[in-house]
Amino acid sequence: MKLVFWKKSGGAAGQVDFNRLPRHIAIILDGNGRWAKRRGLPRTAGHKVGAETFRTIATYCRDIGLEYLTVYAFSTENWKRPKDEVETIMVLLKRYLLEAIETMERDNVRLRFMGDLLALNDELKALVAECNAISDRLTGCQCNICINYGGRAELVHAAQSFAEDCIAGSVKPGDLTEDIFEKYLYSAGIPSPDLLIRPGGELRLSNFLLWQCAYAEFYLTDVLWPDFSKEELHKAIAAYQSRNRRYGAVT
Ligand code: IPE
Ligand code: IPE
Ligand code: MG
User: Fold this and answer.
1) Which ligand minimizes its atom distance to the CA of 225?
2) Which residue's CA is minimally distant from atom 1 of ligand 2?
3) For 86-95, what is each residue's pLDDT tens digit?
4) Cα-to-centroid distance, 243 and ligand 3 (Å)
5) Would you state the torsion angle of the CA atoms of residues 121, 124, 125, 130, taken in this order, to the nearest 10 degrees?
6) Which of 23, 68, 168, 242 is most buried (CB neighbours < 10 A)?
């Protein structure tokens, strides 16, 4: 059994049991702007470093055998940001997708995209389609990237799709169950996150995976995303492993 130890600042050592990893970790990639501001840099510099941190953490998650990683990269609300910041994020996304197309087969990493992708430019849409086609042939770790994602928008989209199926006659309103509703979500077929990590110090969901996080364990840290490290991931996993998940029952 492989264990990783570290010394907590105040005393006892923590540990990760790699045989009891969560199946699915979701991360809100937050704090890029403040990371840059603290260094007197433009916010876009924070996004560039944040993209590197994402590569490092995603690769590490694959290496330790995580089944599902979901990252919140751009929300339905993030379009409100200055044009140059949005453009930089889209350029970084393009760069990442081009790189993924070259490497995902070798690394056996599947990519899936969650969100309203129709709002992306044609070039990004084509790259997403190419990543999806490659992913269909692969079996390894799945990385879900949430772009133009909003939890509320996802629920509305699911309700619309269900209503359309009702009108088409393939299903009846009274037949709807939680399991059937899940099939209409962007996350259809993906188990709910076990562990939700939010770096950046904010204590909110910011419209992320509202349905799916019903019983996720939260790990919130002040560490800003560009500074997030494998050690911080170990802390989050160890915290998760120390929790008692009762799902409303008594243990
Ligand atoms: C997260 O970092 C990245 C995106 C939302 C795209 P932020 O840009 O929100 O960074 P802060 O929260 O302003 O520091
Ligand atoms: C959440 O971060 C969205 C992403 C990380 C993509 P925000 O920075 O947009 O959230 P708020 O504005 O602090 O709630
Ligand atoms: Mg933020």
Assistant:
1) 1
2) 206
3) 999 999 999 9
4) 27
5) 160
6) 68
